[in-house]
Known about the structure:
single chain; 340 residues; alpha+beta; Cytochrome C3; three-stranded antiparallel β-sheet; Multihaem_cyt_sf; Cyt_c7-like; Nanowire_3heme; Cytochrome C; signal
Amino acid sequence: MNLRTVSLASLLFLACVLPATAKETKEITYKFKNAEPVVFSHDYHLGKYNNNCRICHNTLFNLKNRKRFTMVEMEKGKSCGACHTGMKAFSVANDAECGRCHKGKPRPVVFKMKGATDAVFKHEAHVPKLGGKCRTCHSNQNITGGRKVTMAQMEKGKSCGACHDDKKAFTVAGNCGKCHNGMAPPKTVVFKIKGVADATFSHDFHLGMYKCADCHTRLFAYRAGAKRYTMADMAKGKSCGACHSGKDAFASTGDCGKCHPGLKPAKLTWKTSLGEAFFDHEFHLGMYKCEECHTKIFQYRKGASSATMAQMEGGKSCGTCHNGKDAFSVKDDCVKCHNM
């Protein structure tokens, strides 16, 4: 038997063996967290294409670099979408055909939230309202882009906010209990403040007058301490100061004890060349309110508004009142402030 005869015999052998090998290729199962698996049948497709593996490999599916594709990508011709266009085979962009690959009913999607109850998306509630048109969401990258989004982003139209805008459906800016199952009334938020009593915010009290949407996320992100503001910021309308302006509610520049329970302003002392100087909050609060000094004259932090005696004599700091008219002058009676 010559070499040519051997080669011909080998080719005939391979021609017989390869189809059998291809036919034995297993089904591919794609698992989903919230739906039944999608099963790709090699047996069915190889029968359609005369056992020609190269129709898909490696032109559409790279066996060395396996990658999962989204429905949006398939609709643009990637993966299964290369053939399933409505011409060669049924289209992946046809809502009526979804059930040919996706068997069973989609399950609820549960989103775990830190500091809040789980949010639940129910397919069984949305699919009938959309007339079974799955692509309303699944072909929109803005809705099902795969990334987690914040409530602030939803309010701008991302994810659920694309529909839940108070026009097509209830707004994501309120109605928290409709998505967060078993949501208990929000807790009182405590803000730890260095050098002064903790500030507290009662959700229970405020929800008696306002809705979640009045504050979140226009004024506050849905996370305590996400952004801190100074009392000076609040006096300019930031944070709590948006309402606590002295018009809509008591001003943030006064009535400190309403937010800082148990507040007892300390007696302040400063070391100077003339001996220790002191300021008695208790004495002054018998005649004035916090807002008459804070933050117009003094910041809410010791040393932030320090001034020299010369500056005080010019009307700065303590000299605003201690001018010899409203109160004794800083030029006289040094022992009233300095332990000499």
